[in-house]
């Protein structure tokens, strides 16, 4: 029951209507028996500073941050953890006695979502599709997973160049190499692991995929950060050729869980049956 001790958490974004975070976190609150609520705040970019100061003054304990505020907040916080400094993006704020601390839990969410499959990455060659914000977190995670090589394709060459600069200079990851459209399908065939971090294939553009359907085979592991639809065209094509596939729903769950651990300072665990349950709930809300 909500009372004067109830802790308030939330997510800020613009727009925010389609966020699954309130469903996810309120399920966590109930599952871990926390006296807390989690709400969505539609915060216009011009109100960002006021919103976090106001939240802090009201005693809001933690906020998740989504598009378009992940980078805009970098100049508005008091402290950034190491991962934020490296990745250059924020998805979690701790509002603590007037001090605003920033974290990013997407790299953790990606790695944790792999489960035992994370051992497939050591010394592997990986094809990464996309060079946006999510790709930064994934490259950072791939470096920690000790991959051998990361081939990167992006539709816009200019963004790809900026992304390579970021990998080399900010992340100090040198094993990345840019490829163009002509090389894409051959490299996709040769790489055992393919990760899509683009919005191609995401609802409502469900007919889109960056790869030809005949490049897949049964030695492939294909991961798509998109989770709406549950299986994108990329995943359906890969599955059809016998590849192992995974969508982004578990990444969403684990980045959220890590935010909640940061806010509560509790080592919250999510056992397999519970993971299955929340995955199902989220998928049914799409
Ligand atoms: P950004 O806007 O930062 O980057 C978008 C990327 O997608 C760019 O590389 C862009 O290429 C590319 N892209 C978009 N549309 C197309 C298209 N039709 N064809 C080819 N490339 C395209 O977004 P994010 O990196 O933050 O997010 C990307 C995706 O990842 C989203 O679908 C998002 O929902 C998902 N995501 C999932 C998470 C999870 O927890 N599962 C976490 C974070 C993100 P270009 O530079 O050419 O425009």
At a glance:
With 286 residues, the protein is an alpha/beta fold. The protein has ten helices and twelve strands. Helices cover 38% and strands 19% of the residues.
What would the keywords be for this entry?
286 residues; 38% helix; 10 helices; binds NADPH dihydro-nicotinamide-adenine-dinucleotide phosphate; 2 domains; six-stranded parallel beta sheet; Rossmann fold; alpha/beta; six-stranded mixed beta sheet
Question: What report would you give on this structure?
Answer:
This protein has 2 domains: 133 residues, 3-Layer(aba) Sandwich (Rossmann fold), CATH 3.40.50; 139 residues, NAD(P)-binding Rossmann-like Domain (Rossmann fold, 3-Layer(aba) Sandwich), CATH 3.40.50.720. The longest helix is centred in the last third of the chain and has 16 residues. α5 links the parallel β7 and β8. The two termini are 27 Å apart. α4 packs across α5. With 286 residues, the chain is of the alpha/beta class.
Main pleated sheet: 6 strands, mixed
Give the neighbour order of strands across the main sheet: 2-1-3-5-6-4
Report how far apart the termini are.
27 Å
**Total individual domains:** 2
Gyration radius, rounded: 19 Å
Task: Give the SSE string.
Answer: EHEHEEHEEHEHEHEHEEHEHH
Helical/strand content category: alpha/beta
CATH superfamily of the largest domain: NAD(P)-binding Rossmann-like Domain
CATH class of the largest domain: Alpha Beta
What overall form do the CA principal axes indicate?
globular
Count of individual helical segments: 10
Q: What ranges have pLDDT less than 50 throughout 5 or more consecutive residues?
A: none
